[in-house]
UniProtKB/TrEMBL annotation:
Biological processes per GO annotation: DNA transposition
Domain of life: Bacteria
Protein's name in the database: Transposase-like protein
Organism: Streptococcus thermophilus
GO molecular function list: DNA binding; transposase activity
Amino acid sequence: MTNNRYEPEFKQKVLRLYLEEGRTKKSLTEEYNLGQGTLTYWLQQYRKECDNSPTKREESDSYEVAKKLRKEIEELKKENDF
């Protein structure tokens, strides 16, 4: 087993082919001579980075604020119905 190091640009290219163009893992690992778990590992790392990104946290915070506001609106509507 070899311990290859891949440039970030190369990883991004392969991930883009998989995520945006719908290529299969099998076709990409064969075409680029990647180890079987390599692409899977890159995908896991990419998803972790996306989940921890500031944008993702802001979206989560925005969702919570919107949820709280919807609840408050419902309570105010009930008060106005009396």
